[in-house]
Amino acid sequence: MPNLSPFFVTGLAVGAIYALSGVGLVVLYRASGVLNFAYGAIGAVGALLAWQLLQYELPETLAWLAGIGLATLLSLGYGRMVAPHLAYRDTVVKAVATLGFALVLLGFSRWYWSDDPRQFAIPTDTIGVSMLGVRVTVTRMIAFSMTLLITIGVALFLTRTRLGLLMRALANNRDLSALLGIQVLQVETWAWFISGVLAGISGLMLSDLVRLDAIVLTFMVIPAMAAAVVGRLRSLWGTMIGGLLIGVLEAVATPFQVISPYRSVAPFVVAIIVILWLQRRRVITFAGGT
User: Fold this and answer.
1) CATH number of the domain within which 69 lies
2) What is the value of pTM for the model shown?
């Protein structure tokens, strides 16, 4: 039996970023009804810009902020120029439109930055502590703690602030919210802004923890979506648990040769199990009611 401790630690760090991405997706979906398939591509473009600026020997902090800023601008641009025109279309149509945006960003990234291998490193990668016989880098600890703090912050924001309450009202009924005087476009703009910031942060962290590659980061949206499904696109804490679970399952499958080639299906397995479990609960509840 291989020692799974190092893989477990790695899985927690990567899973934390999956969870953070899922939180960004849930915030946007609850406010606008948009399931953003371009989330990973937005983070990828931001991470590539940060890498490019580092090649120009800009200070690391400025490069990171620029990458997050570009991701935020891309999210805001789509949220203001495209999303409002699809507000009353079916959820599937809105999701497919974001998929088109993702393909545009991916195509641009591949054209401008090509497929050359790149390395994106954060200074905290070289600093670590030993825990239970496993060396844990500060970067991994930052990933986990940052996800926890941001999830708590977003949860408090949605429940304790006026803007957060408006987002929740908008998620329940867009037309009724507009009749009550809520500035729908303004509230949705804030949701796209928050989602863009989280996409930028997620892209930078995954570039360090996994790999700086446009395709890899674009498909980051798959485990993030699965994490959001675990939270039923509503619960931030359920989303966080889902992201951590997916990351750990992917990582601990690595040393097993039989299942290692299939570890990328972990998000689908987790999402399917949760969906079946929720469906079973509904069937039991319905049967009990009859």
Assistant:
1) 1.10.3470
2) 0.89
